[in-house]
Automatic annotation (TrEMBL):
SMART domains noted in UniProt: Elp3 (SM00729)
Keyword Nucleotidyltransferase found: no
Domain Radical SAM core: 4-226
Classification via InterPro entries: Aldolase_TIM (IPR013785), Elp3/MiaA/NifB-like_rSAM (IPR006638), MoaA (IPR013483), MoaA-like (IPR040064), MoaA_NifB_PqqE_Fe-S-bd_CS (IPR000385), MoaA_twitch (IPR010505), MoCo_biosynth_MoaA/MoaC (IPR050105), rSAM (IPR007197)
E.C. no: 4.1.99.22
Catalytic activity reported: GTP + AH2 + S-adenosyl-L-methionine = (8S)-3',8-cyclo-7,8-dihydroguanosine 5'-triphosphate + 5'-deoxyadenosine + L-methionine + A + H(+)
Organism: Blautia faecis
UniProt enzyme class: lyase
Taxonomy of the source species: Bacteria, Bacillati, Bacillota, Clostridia, Lachnospirales
Family matches, as SUPFAM superfamilies: Radical SAM enzymes
Protein name: GTP 3',8-cyclase
Pfam families on file: Mob_synth_C, Radical_SAM
Amino acid sequence: MLDRYGRNIDYLRISLTDRCNLRCIYCMPEEGIRQIPRTELLDTDEIVRICKAASELGISRIKLTGGEPLVRRICTPLVKELKAIPGICQVTLTTNGILLGEQLPGLMEAGLDAVNISLDTLEETTFRKITRRDDFHQVLKGLRAALSYPSLKVKLNCVPTFQSDEELLQVAALARENPLHVRFIEMMPIGLGKEFAARGEELIKSVLEKEYGSMTPTEEKLGNGPCHYYTLEKFTGRIGFISALSHKFCDSCNRVRLTSTGFLKGCLQFEDGADLKVLLRSGCSDRMLKETIEKVIYEKPVGHNFQEHKKGNEESHIMAQIGG
């Protein structure tokens, strides 16, 4: 499925819930948010029906996100159903890791292909400041559990905020000592992220290279999204960067997003898209569902305009409500 700019859209990110067991400073207010009633969330059958239609349009890779997807009990059985859809070759998960240790055996049996674990620091005090919770050791437990499965591809996501350079070095070193890739994600001005200045890729690279030596770009394809990777001598894994502002990648964007309430979005920044839940619950045909998905994909915006500061239909929800 090509959009009007010739980009091949083959990747769908699905948020399962707006709920989360952390309160990260760049994602959710300390007091939490007004949670969406469970009856307004897509159920398993609705998600599977959307994914079947999307797969017929060329979607072949699915990422489950949140909020925190593992707080919703449908996650494991959903992975199994999505893996059974013809044309879907990969189902992956992004999680904060707190519940991962206990749920991973079931997820692996269901066919999970890869997991991204969010961890911004290895210092417990800083973790508490960023997440406003005391679950640091549960996240480490989840990370260790993920690494215990040789067939599971593991990535660690770090969003630089006020961590020290030493803390960023510690996070990067996980890729030296373990078979995983560490990715530094540039802060985007969405929701609470607007309150933080983005720490650019070049700045973080200079910190890493000063300590670990020269970083060599790699052409390896190590995931479904826009991350680009570097190799470092004596590192088992790779260091990656997702830099939506300093290294804009909209011209190669291959994704669309489905919120937990069933709204399909072509671009993270804009509120344009289609309410698939309304269609499903009004008894739409498979043909109409497929045509609506096709229209959203085809009309996917050419790119974000965060740096141009243009106005016009910007997303008003926070990341936990959109899907991270």
